[in-house]
């Protein structure tokens, strides 16, 4: 089973971030502030704060991952109603060769870009097309084609892999998915299209996609408290879909703020119990498409949400090894779809297996140590 990690491409300045957060802003500002004011267990990359508009820094990320034994990245792809954003890594991929046998695919982060982290007045910076017409889909597909035709782009049985983060962002996801499939076909390509399962309400989409990823630790967090009430979650999802798309994100965030007025922290041992729980097994059995796992290496979004942070504590070596071994031995998961870890470098939400200045590289080594369900021997 191939071992990939989610790659977070936005560690570089953009005009839209300058306007929203101040000149020169990147996510490193969030990480540095969290470290300086002890909002969390300190985290930052061993190589220092890099600039992903710099080709040398981009190349260094791919080389570091490949040299360690990782086989690819699932890269967050940002495409809005007016086109691409945060695309320096994508520009690099069009002209530079990746390390040998290292691959990538895109995870379309198809949700509106807002100032929801800490600002009281939530503003929308960029919108996606919630009801994209044919012209919009053609533009997007034409943008994706050169990547999907690349020899480094991940293919399953010859079909490029493509993931849609949020099917619920579309007013009529069936019509949108059909339009994308039709447009890809007319362009001479037939991608295998998947989505992220984040809660029980997402199970309905499994009838229409080629596969799905179980998005952890979001699924775990959504099993707690009010979020863990499947009936209430389904009703909320149906209710919020009544509103125009431009209001959905703001309503959702305000409800989240009401529910999460203070911090929440969970032990990794509790997460391991959840992974093997009847509740999670029931969810997996209800899915109607091939399933693959997204492993979590811990989570803490204090850099973004400050006192309203949600934390899954950093695992020990043995805890993380146990998680990896159990998941790749599981009977539920596809051997064709790459395994994902969340994430390579999502530093501003405390999810990174990239070598860390403070924690070292034990998470990366632990992720890669177990092969085919068995611990490697020296």
Explain what the structure shows:
- The strands form four sheets. The protein has an eight-stranded parallel barrel with strand order 1-2-4-8-9-10-12-15. A three-stranded mixed sheet has the order 11-14-13.
- It is an alpha/beta fold and about 375 residues long.
- It has a single domain, classed as TIM Barrel.
- The chain has 14 helices and 17 strands.
- The protein is globular and about 50 Å long.
- The protein is about 35% helix and about 20% strand.
Short account of what is shown:
With 378 residues, this protein is α/β, with parallel strands linked by helices. The protein has one domain (3-375): TIM Barrel (Alpha-Beta Barrel).
Topology readout:
Layout: E1 3-7, H1 15-21, H2 27-36, H3 55-68, E2 72-80, E3 83-85, H4 88-95, E4 103-108, E5 113-114, E6 124-126, H5 134-148, E7 155-156, E8 159-164, H6 173-186, E9 192-197, E10 211-214, H7 218-221, H8 230-240, H9 245-259, E11 264-266, H10 268-275, H11 278-286, E12 291-296, E13 299-300, H12 302-305, E14 310-312, H13 317-329, E15 339-342, H14 362-369, E16 370-371, E17 374-375
Helix pairs in contact: 5-6, 13-14
